[in-house]
Amino acid sequence: MRQSQVLIPTLKEVPTDAEAVSHQLMLRAGFIRQIAAGVYAYLPLALRVIQNVERIVREEMDKIDAVESLMPAILPAELWQESGRYQTYGDNLFKLQDRHQRDFILGPTHEETMTYLVKNVLNSYKMMPKVLYQIQTKYRDEDRPRYGLLRGREFIMYDGYSFTANSDDLDKIFDQMEQAYHNIFDRCGLDYRVILGDSGDMGGNSSREFSAIADIGEDTIVYSDMSDYAANLEMATSIIADNPTEKLAPLQEVAAPGVNTIEALVQHLQVAPQKIIKNVAFMADDKPVLALIRGDYDINEVKLKNLLEVNELRPATDAEISEKFQSSPGFIGPVHLSVKLPIIADLSVQNLCNATTGGNHKDQQVQNANIDRDYQVDQFADIRTVKAGEISPDDKGTLQFTRGIEIGHVFKLGTKYSQSFQAEFLDEAGRPQPIIMGCYGIGISRLLSAIVEQHNDEKGMIWPLEVAPYQAHIVIVNTKKAEQTSLAKTVEQQLIKEGFSVLVDDRKQRPGVKFAESDLLGIPVRIVIGKKAADNIVEVKLRNQSEAIEVAQNDLVDTINILLKNYIS
């Protein structure tokens, strides 16, 4: 391919509104251009990378007998109303009406559509298992699209769905998908971790999240420094030391005017935060719930929401604390609580002796509060946010934090959607049963940003070989020299015959400009054809190396193959 014929609008300066390195480099290298906030055009080089990623995905899906299909992007709103997600997705949905005022949405994902599709089709256990997938543009009306392709309002996604008659088949497909994801991300040259993830609005009771390590990542990854344990911050847990036992002291009410925070309480009563019960009032689907946690920890709202199995969880307002909890904001606590409501306590509170906590009256706290004697707890559970340095839950090493970009997710959905849509099959005994489902997603366009975040230097991008827009970049130093253009054509045909994709810089530009832009584009192999073209000598350099070597044209392919053994995958 002649570079002079490809649209590659490079920029010399870093765009001021681009924060992420990947966003800056893909704009500078002419891979993408913004059309609207969170909406990008994929120019020729970016599209080639996307097509390479899609090829890898399709090859790995073929290995596990997953079959490609394509669903509509415009979906009737009633499908999402039937599942309940029309409300829970809220403003993130792009909503529209047709000329007959019928409500539609632009699909952000396709669980409902796929379930509706197989309803009354997969009506016997003999027709399962089945795995369908698609690669399609999705739409989510993000409030703050940012970081280029990392968080957009229009993006390309792989989404797969499995349909099984029993849990054993679901487990088998789930494991196959997880391995396929490993293969895909390995072939894309990514450094990633597989972590315990939150299923969120997707539903289901088991999930694995694939996260690419990157400082710009919006997810916090918690991992053990001595084992394979990893989870996102919303799901991570740890081993904490037991609370020390001591003789129970009498309950005591103390005046604490204006002392309504943990920090103020520590100073006012000279008590350690580990001896304080922090009380947080929540509204769970508009019902009051009181959550307790030790004063040196914070409530993890995702864990609490999952535990309560509610659609919405939010902190109660001061007015709600007064009305629904019959308490005083800043002084709420489990002791002397005048209304009956669910009390959930973190494991850090279990066996906590002689604790300080809220007294449920303005400017009043209580000391020496003890479980069972002074207050009751309905349920103990892990509802805390872990801290770096704590002991890993497998008792191997300590927890460390890093940042990551979510690039893939696999879910065991169970029967959440099949029950909503009455998607049933007849089992071996002829009894109707809901189809058991799994869901699998990969952010295809997001992968471009993740790869560039990990593979770049001060000169530009460094694409891994399998996903690079072109694998070899032939740079003609002087296009007016016939011997150089002739040799370039010979080398191009030679490389194409060996299976390389080739871009030839045939532009009438200064060599310095060509070399700088070649580095910016990040193509793995650069072949410079210059003054020694008459002797059939070329210069070869890998993008991730600083030194170039001279090679005879006849030895070029063998030399490249040897050099690529030291290149990124």
Automatic annotation (TrEMBL):
Gene this protein is translated from: proS
Sections of the chain in a coiled coil: none
E.C. designation(s): 6.1.1.15
Record localization: Cytoplasm
Pfam families according to UniProt: HGTP_anticodon (PF03129), tRNA-synt_2b (PF00587), tRNA_edit (PF04073)
Stated name of the protein: Proline--tRNA ligase
InterPro entries with a match to the protein in the record: aa-tRNA-synt_IIb, aa-tRNA-synth_II, aa-tRNA-synth_II/BPL/LPL, Anticodon-bd, Anticodon-bd_dom_sf, Pro-tRNA-ligase_IIa, Pro-tRNA-synth_IIa_bac-type, Pro-tRNA-Synthase_IIa_type1
Key words of the record: Aminoacyl-tRNA synthetase, ATP-binding, Cytoplasm, Ligase, Nucleotide-binding, Protein biosynthesis
GO molecular function, one term: catalytic activity, acting on a protein
